[in-house]
Design goal:
Layout lengths: L6 E7 L2 E7 L3 E5 L6 H16 L2 H7 L3 H4 L12 E8 L2 E8 L14 E9 L5 E7 L2 E5 L5 E4 L9 H4 L7 H11 L2 E4 L28 H12 L2 H10 L4 E7 L2 E7 L7 E2 L5 H13 L8 E4 L10 H12 L4 E5 L2 H11 L4 E6 L2 E4 L9 H6 L1
Parallel strand pairs: 3-15, 3-16, 10-14, 14-15
Antiparallel strand pairs: 1-2, 1-4, 4-5, 5-6, 6-7, 7-8, 8-9, 11-12, 12-13, 16-17
Length: 373
């Protein structure tokens, strides 16, 4: 596992003017509709997209940069930019996205372009390891020698995704791998035509895909290759007396669930939407190899209220293995996570029209943290 996410920065994205948030083993964000919870979640997704080189394409898919820019007052004379940053221990990566100038190559006047990137080693005296402006970038190798690459990058590309020489630029490669390993889970499809209901290929699957399509394979991997105690416990906690079984037929994983008082086991095509969603969450949070960071957006969606406490316990166990970031609209889940996992919820609010968190200081620390220290 690569460097762990310890904080992130967002500036100029939708309802977020500028903020920095710490990230612990389990971060829980709760708030009413319209305060910007999903914007925080989506900003993390875009940060991870920089590692895949798709950040500008994803912003274009949201309607373009003009659709996602902070709409409130801006500092006069300052370029209009989106800025995302990830703090991974002693390494901080930032990327800035803006609109084309007259001298930049773009296929439209509204195409989102990567303007700047930077990777800094922050322990002690800060040392810049990578600096990108426009199409040019320089990187520092393991011997502190600078390597310049002039007019190398297209404005839709990130240096983070482009330079993948682990031997020469080890820190950049570690950050890229760490961000690319993050997983985001939001609203698993549970309709009759969902790929989650179809048997996936019988291929060892250590980590659940973000769309949940390989759910049965991920559960089978943990149950067959490793051990099934945690998965059995998660099922029994949510559905007393029930059990989960997997089998391989025709090169595909067949999932079945035995429920008390039912005459036969139910296949994935037959279980309820809420049950299927919970099984996906079990696969996401109890798979063989958890990703380096998990973000959940309203995981309580489609779940019966009786499943909230079991879900909180499931999330708490996952947070013992990897950092988990949970955005929820449900005070019941936030309260359960505090009781079951000891995670004090952060309340997302609006301050002067911008998304903020109650108790958050401009430094990115919470007032309660100072009081407890």
């Amino acid at each position: 596992m690569g460097p762990r996410l310890t904080g992130f920065q967002i500036e100029g994205y939708r309802s977020i003017r500028k903020l920095r948030l710490p990230v612990g083993h389990l971060s829980v964000l709760v708030g009413r509709n319209g305060v910007g919870k999903t914007n925080l979640y989506r900003a993390l997704e875009l940060t991870a997209a920089a590692a895949r080189g798709t950040i500008t394409r994803e912003i274009a898919g949201e309607g373009g940069i003009e659709s996602v820019l902070w709409a409130g007052p801006r500092q006069r004379g300052k370029p209009v930019r989106l800025k995302f940053g990830a703090e991974l221990g002693d390494l901080t990566y930032t990327v800035e996205i803006g609109l084309p100038t007259k001298t930049e190559a773009a296929i439209s006047l509204t195409e989102p372009l990567v303007k700047e990137e930077e990777l800094v080693f922050t322990a002690g005296r800060p040392v810049t390891l990578m600096k990108r402006r426009g199409p040019s970038v320089w990187l520092r190798d393991g011997e502190s020698k600078r390597h310049a690459f002039e007019h190398t990058l297209l404005a839709s590309e990130t240096a983070l995704a482009t330079f993948q020489d682990a031997a020469m630029f080890a820190e950049l490669d570690a950050v890229r791998r760490a961000l690319a390993d993050w997983r985001f889970f939001h609203n698993f499809r549970t309709d009759a035509g969902s790929p989650i209901r179809r048997p996936p290929l019988a291929v060892t699957t250590p980590t659940l895909a973000s769309d949940g399509s390989d759910m049965a394979a991920a559960l089978a991997t943990r149950m067959v290759i490793d051990e099934r105690v945690e998965i059995d416990a998660a099922i029994a906690d949510a559905f007393p007396g029930a059990s989960l079984d997997v089998a391989v037929e025709g090169g595909r994983v067949m999932l079945s669930m035995t429920i008390p008082d039912m005459p036969r086991p139910l296949a994935a095509t037959e279980v309820s939407d809420g049950t299927l969603a919970y099984l996906c969450l079990v696969a996401a949070l109890a798979s063989y190899r958890l990703p380096g960071f998990i973000a959940l957006n309203e995981p309580e969606t489609s779940l019966h209220p009786d499943l909230i406490r079991p879900l909180a316990r499931l999330i708490g166990r996952a947070a013992e293995r990897t950092p988990v970031w949970c955005v929820t609209h449900a005070p019941d889940l936030a309260d359960a996570l505090e009781v079951e996992a000891g995670a004090r919820p952060w309340v997302v609010c609006k301050q002067d029209g911008a998304t903020w968190l109650e108790g958050l200081k401009l430094t990115g620390a919470f007032a309660d943290d100072d009081d407890e220290g």
